Amino acid sequence: MRLAAAVFAFSMCAPAQWINYPTAGIPRTADGQPNLTAPAPRTAQGKPDFSGMWREADPLPCDGVNRVCGDLAISVQFGNLGVGLKDGVPYQPWALAKTKNKGLTDDPYTNCLARGGPRMHLLPTMKKLVQTPTLIVILDEYNASFRQIFTDGRPLPVDPQPTWNGYSTGRWEGDTLVVDSIGYRDDQWLDARGSPLTEAGKVTERFRRPNFGNLEIEVTINDPKAYTRPWTATIHQTAVFDTELIDLICMENEKDVQHLTVK
Questions:
Q1: Interval 149-173: pLDDT, tens
Q2: Its pTM surpasses 0.85
Q3: How far apart are CA 121 and CA 236, in angstroms?
Q4: Distance between CA 54 and CA 240 in Å, rounded?
Q5: Taken in order 40, 42, 47, 50, is the CA torsion positive or negative?
Q6: Distance between CA atoms of 74 and 85, rounded to whole angstroms?
Q7: In sequence order, what DSSP letters do the residues of the chain get, joined into one string?
């Protein structure tokens, strides 16, 4: 989180750079601010257009308790993706034990590896969605990484080589983009709690853009190796305007991990 804050601090000192360049073609209010409640844009094919820059919504408040708060703060779901579930996350016994016995230095994200899977939606760094008729690309400031969602009708691969982001195909159900993903590595975390995502997992995301400034991503985890049943959480993101991506390479002058301790 300290790295993200450093990027933000740098942006405040460089007003001539693209991070302060006005976003063209967006609806604005009378005072020139982006109109977040305007209708969601649509593509030439009549589908909702998810293109643009996004970050996680509802960051932790600046209440004197949180060390990192405000625009680049982490959300509650960053620590526990299933925090709002009535009956809690349905862990298999070994997976529950893992969340209780994890160490901060075990986290792939803390160790500057890929964030992997749906966890990418929870990072405090900004994401940019680029949408075409046959492909959606998600660019992430963190480690200058990317994810591809194919919407060209191709099937999911059979017996894929495991990867951090998996393999994703999307289809439209009305104004909802339904994305199915498989082929994950067997050592991933869904959140900082250590909720696992294994190679047996299938993730279904339902993307909706109810208005210009908001994105809803309903995430269903179906991983019988780690959970007793499928479970669903909804992630909210807000649009970001008049700025641009700046890559954040975690291993560049990284000095945090060596100071982390397990209590």
A1: 999 999 999 999 999 999 999 999 9
A2: yes
A3: 9
A4: 5
A5: negative
A6: 19
A7: -HHHHHHHHHHHT-TTSGGGPPPTT--B-TTS-B-TTSPPPB-TTSSB---EEEEESSBPP-SSS-SS-STTPPBHHHH-TTTT-TT---B-HHHHHHHHH--GGG-TTTTT----GGGGGG-SS-EEEEE-SSEEEEEETBTTEEEEEE-SSPPPPSSPPPBSS-EEEEEEETTEEEEEEE-B-SSEESSTT--EE-TT-EEEEEEEEEETTEEEEEEEEE-TTTBSS-EEEEEEEEEE-S-----B-TTTT--SGGG----
Structural domains of the chain, with CATH: 2-23+43-251 (2.40.128.20)
The residues, any chain, with a CB within 8 Å of residue 113's CB and separated by 6 or more, are: 164
The single-letter code of the amino acid at 217 is: I
Instruction: Please state, in angstroms and rounded to a whole number, the distance separating the CA atoms of residues 157 and 173.
Output: 22
The per-residue pLDDT for 57 is 79
Name residues whose C-beta falls within 8 Å of residue 119's C-beta, 6 or more positions apart in sequence: 81, 109, 188, 189, 190, 191
Low-confidence ranges of the chain (pLDDT < 50): 1-16, 262-263
- As given in the structure block, the two tokens for residue 77 are 């779901």
